[in-house]
Amino acid sequence: MPALLTASWVQLGWEDRLQESWSEWQQALLSEPEPEVDDSVIHYAIQSGDSLSRIFSRHGFSQQLMHHIMAADQSLLALDVLRPGHTFTFRLDEQGELQSMELFVHAGNRVLYQRESDGEFSYQELLDEGEWHSQTLVGEIHGSFYVSAQRAGLNDAEIATVSQLFRDRVNFSRDIQAGARFQVVRSDNYVGEEATGQSRIEGIRIFNRRQQLTAFLHDNGQYYDADGNSLQRAFMRIPLQREYRISSAFNPRRLHPVTRRVSPHNGTDFATPTGTPVLAAADGTVIRVENHPFAGRYIEIQHHGQYKTRYLHLDRALVRNGQRVERGQRIALSGATGRVTGPHLHYELHVNNRPVNPMTANIPLAQPIPDEGRDAFFEKVAFMIQQMDEETLLAQKR
Ligand SMILES: [Zn+2]
Q1: Looking at CB atoms within 10 Å, which of 27, 72, 153, 348 has the fewest?
Q2: What phi, psi does 222 have (nearest 5°)?
Q3: pLDDT at residue 257 above 50?
């Protein structure tokens, strides 16, 4: 029995202490995080204007060490976009040598770079898809759609998605009647209680004159109207004017020829001579034009729905960050930048933030909704329409 008594006493003491220090605790949470007691762990919150090289020199880490980590990051390219709010955790051994580095993007996305016995680094993505919580937003269009949608609570990226989805059906600057109603189901991503900052449009309806514009997101990452017709223009399977020999195929389990460790090949390599025009695989927005010691000069494009593409080892980029591009538009000239054995284009396709084989993946083909998952789609649409109508009625009563 004494052991049990001790245990409950300890527990009581612990709870009391918790009660006492609760307000202190909250204060601490609101102010700066407490410095780590263990000096072998360093936390660093990324500031605006920070670069990896600046952060490394500030902590006394060598450029050579950074090079090793960049090598590990080559197939992920997570370190090229450091944003305020993201954090690093560095763990050192007794000699002060870096053993691991963790990049915290949000609660659902962390990347761990770990030193291996040979001094090289490996990476591991720690992903948690969390949950999507939806809400219904309603409003009327007065003046521009942009301002009206923003007033209803949509962000810039969501508004851009909507106007691109309907671009073949309506001209937002000309054809919208004043007072046209719109309804949107938007969902936000949470891991536990924490919002990750990711959001997406699940469904939208716009009532304009006699026309009803609808778009709903299906499980395959593509948008269809309420009748199941595709709203996305087809993707190009190959982002080139003609076919080139595939010099290296997509292979998530590829072994590194020297280290024999798994070093995924997240794209398809085409044996293109330097200067070959590279085309946007689909309509979208350029979200990165970067230079990487291993990936070379590269471009990333965000497409509608849950699609992204990447083009690596470019000789020259012909677009800038933030630019809207159309399917088939020349975006770059291929090259041999970064660490390569010869000129080629490395092309990646990501669906829901995961790389997939660009040669075999289901790409948008501007075709009606596939039979598989069709019933579930129409059920989801009916449910969302009901939510939208209820919210509109509520809004009219307010
Ligand atoms: Zn490649």
Answers
A1: 27
A2: -115, 155
A3: yes
Q: Which structural domains are found in the chain, ordered by start?
A: 32-127 (3.10.450.350), 149-232+367-397 (3.10.450.350), 246-356 (2.70.70.10)
Quote the pLDDT of residue 350. 95
Supply the mean pLDDT for the chain. 88
Q: How far is the CA of 83 from the centre of ligand 1 (A)?
A: 27
Q: What is the pLDDT of residues 3-26, one digit of tens each?
A: 333 333 333 333 333 444 444 444
Is 66 in contact with 52 (CB distance < 8 Å)?
yes
Integer Cα distance of 275 and 246 in angstroms = 17
Residue 283 Cα to ligand 1 midpoint, Å, equals 23
Q: Could you tell me the distance, in angstroms and rounded to a whole number, from the CA of residue 336 to the centre of ligand 1?
A: 11
Tell how far the Cα of 267 is from the centroid of ligand 1, in angstroms: 6
Task: Give ion ligand 1 contacts, CB < 5 A.
Answer: 269, 346
Per-residue model confidence as pLDDT tens digits over 262-289: 788 999 999 999 999 999 999 999 999 9
CA distance 102 to 112: 4
pLDDT at 28: 46
Q: Residue 32 is encoded by which pair of tokens?
A: 């700066």
Q: How far apart are CA 176 and CA 165, in angstroms?
A: 15
| 78: exposed, middle or buried (Cβ count in 10 Å: 0-12, 13-18, 19+) | middle
* Predicted pLDDT at 383: 95
| Rounded Cα distance, 83 and 48, in Å | 7
Centre of ligand 1 to C-alpha 242, Å, is: 19
| Residue with token string 């490394």 | 56
Provide the 8-state DSSP code for 357: -
Q: Which tokens go with 91?
A: 């763990």
Distances (CA, A) of 167 to 73, 157, 331: 37, 15, 21
What spacing in Å lies between the alpha carbon of 227 and ligand 1's midpoint? 39
CA of 371 to the centre of ligand 1 (A): 34
Place of tokens 């490996």: 122
How big, in percent rounded to 5, are the helix, strand and coil portions of the chain?
A: 25, 35, 40
Angle in degrees, CA 26, 28, 34, rounded to 5: 145
pLDDT at 39: 65
Q: Is residue 288 within 8 Å of residue 300, measured between CB atoms? A: yes
Asked whether the predicted pLDDT for residue 322 surpasses 90, the reply is yes
